[in-house]
Structure formats: C-alpha cells, structure tokens
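Hey, I was hoping to borrow your eyes for a little while. I'm sending you its amino acid sequence along with the backbone structure tokens. Take your time with it, there's no hurry, and the full record follows here.
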Amino acid sequence: MKIDVFDKNGESVEKIDLEKSLFGVTSSGEAVLQYLRVFNANQRQGTSSTKTRGEVSGGGKKPWKQKGTGRARVGSSRNPLWRKGGISHGPIPKDWSLKISKKVKKTVLISALSYKASAEKIRILDQLELKEKKTKLIKDILQNLKISNRTVFVYGTLNENLIKSAANIKGFHIVSADSVNAFDIISSDYLLFSKEGLLKLEEKLNENK
C-alpha cells in the first residue's frame, strides 16, 4: 500500500509502502469491543466512599431514654435517618480494573491502523523539528495537510518544543511510537506520523510476530 510523505508545506516529497500486515487487515470488531470495555473500565478510579453509622464520629450515647418521652425510639444520633448520620449501602472503594492479553491489544491496534489507512486518515511527515516554541507552526502544518486539530501525532524522537507548541491546540495529541495505543487512534479523526515514528511503530509491531 503506497502512501505519500509530505513536508511541512503539505507538498509530497516521496511515496513509501505501508506494510499490508499492519495497515491492510480486516478489522476485528469483537476484539475492538473487548478492548474498549477493558480500557474504559481501567479509567474508573473506584475511590468513591461514604461512612456507615459505625464509622461516623460521635453518636455513642443514646439521645434520650427508650420510653416515656413520646418520641420515636432511637439508639444513636448517627442513625442513617438523621442529619449527619451514617450512610446506608453507600459506595465503597472498589477496583474496577480488568485485564486483556497482549495479543488482543496488538490485534486491536493493527485493526485501528488498518481502519485509518482504508479511510485515508493517515498522513506522514518527512520530519518535524521545531527550533522554537510556536503553536502557529503546528496549526499551519495541520492546515497544509488538510487535517483537523483532532489528530494524534506519533513521533520517533521527542522534541520539547513540539510538546510546548502543541499544548494549546485543543484535540491535538502527541504520543511516542513506543506508547501509542488503539484508543489514541480510535478516538482521533486523523493519524499523523513522522517518518521516523512510522518506522519505529512498524518495527515494534513486527517484533515477536
């Protein structure tokens, strides 16, 4: 599968091949759904917590005697029915995390790459070296490539100016070839690679085939 490599002005400088085994496979819908379910579950903090009547401070003394007052009997001022009382059946900390195999993760990542390739949502830059921190430089590149801000840029070598320049662009996300995941790709409109980033990702996915 041939694809253009562009410079920062949006001009094609060469064509390269995308590996069919990584960018031309049939999407595995079942694996994608499983991955998204696990990914979303693992984003849950599970730290919500309330105190029961036994954990709320105070309330050790019976508010009034059992009989003779004409009022309803009550054993503690921390009764769940009272203001400042404990909570009945409230949330407690829980671990919501799920596990998924490396094989399924890789399958879903390749499915996501293949979908973006088939939809012509992949762009490749020959290089992106910023000598200064300037958001406009990134915006101009996106405009020249005719892609939206909702883009994931996969780089090979980190550039501090790139991180700072991209920080103010809503929807634009940068990630290394070593750490990009399927959710990054699925949740974006476009996938932008530096040429080095593409080669590193292909090398990573071809390991232990």
Q: What stands out?
A: The mean pLDDT is 88. The chain has seven helices and six strands. The longest strand covers residues 12-17.
